[in-house]
Amino acid sequence: MQAEHRYPEEKFVRVNPSHPCPICGRGDWCGYNSFIASCMRVSEGAFKEVILSNGQVAYLHWLEPGMVNLPALMEEDTITAAQTAPVEVRDRVYRDFLKLLYLHPRHRKDLLRRGLTEWEIRRNGYRSVPGTEAPWSVCRRLIRMGHDLAGIPGFYKARGPHGGTYWTFDRQPGYFIPVRDEKGRIQALQRRMDDARGGKYKLFSGHKSRGGCSCGTPAHVARPAKTEDRRIWITEGPLKADIAGEYLGAVVVGALSAATWRPVIPVILALGAKEAVIAYDRDLETNPEVGRAYEALKAELKKHGLVVGRAVWNGKKGIDDALAAGMEVRVVRV
Ligand SMILES: [Zn+2]
Prior knowledge:
Layout: H1 2-6, E1 13-14, E2 31-32, E3 36-39, E4 48-51, E5 57-62, H2 70-77, H3 87-99, H4 105-114, H5 118-124, E6 127-128, H6 135-144, E7 156-159, E8 165-168, E9 174-180, E10 186-193, E11 201-203, E12 220-222, E13 229-236, H7 238-248, E14 250-255, H8 264-270, E15 275-278, H9 288-303, E16 307-312, H10 319-324, E17 330-333
Parallel strand pairs: 13-14, 13-15, 15-16
Antiparallel strand pairs: 1-2, 2-3, 3-5, 4-5, 6-9, 7-8, 9-10, 10-11, 12-14, 16-17
């Protein structure tokens, strides 16, 4: 019981022919961690039987020290992380990926409610995480189109039931928001999750131990259909930037969060901006962390010789909601 208490959630690693099950001696089906073997065949001597989610019964056996070489098994189980591909490559794959998907009516409704028009929704390329087609099937179609998914954040490898690996991605319901660079290329995808309990927004990224890779924290550049304001606005969140951009008639750069403002700077410089307006959420007045991020961003922009303003409005938390509600947004020099 001592060991159970010490390692309450250590994951089981599946056995393979070179690292067989220490209980039944076979190289498949069973698994172990550093102190328990989960054998699918031998019940004798087990301290516990557990019914797995697929209905099969696994027999848990305590392991004696030295019975297994877990680090060696884990080493073999790990699929090398890929180097993130250049933005040109990511853009090509993501464009074709989004073309294979569609936008669910409930997500279109959500975007309309946020203040975008049908035309803007189509133009910006939002798509739902597929609900019926399996991720591996979508991946297979991309590979058939000639794409290599190694180095494309969000995609990773799963192990097949009979050995080997296949490409897949996470399928938690939600919709994809393209994160574009200053040239309009899709450099990453953010997801608006249907179930916001683990966070409303999540990047399509990671799973480095499964051949996946990270997209970092890139800033999104939202370009409205018509630009009337030559100042560059800065807000938190790609979708917020898309919405604010349309109402303002200005290019809006969306940092992934208030704190990840650093990638905004090279974008602002590449766009050749002379004047920037910071439109962080209104909680910058009460949330010290957001307040600090705002001050740091402001100082960095000034260091590069930009004229800096701050957007001010009443009531709503975010500038997108304020603009969509028809409220007046003023800019004060800071
Ligand atoms: Zn076994």
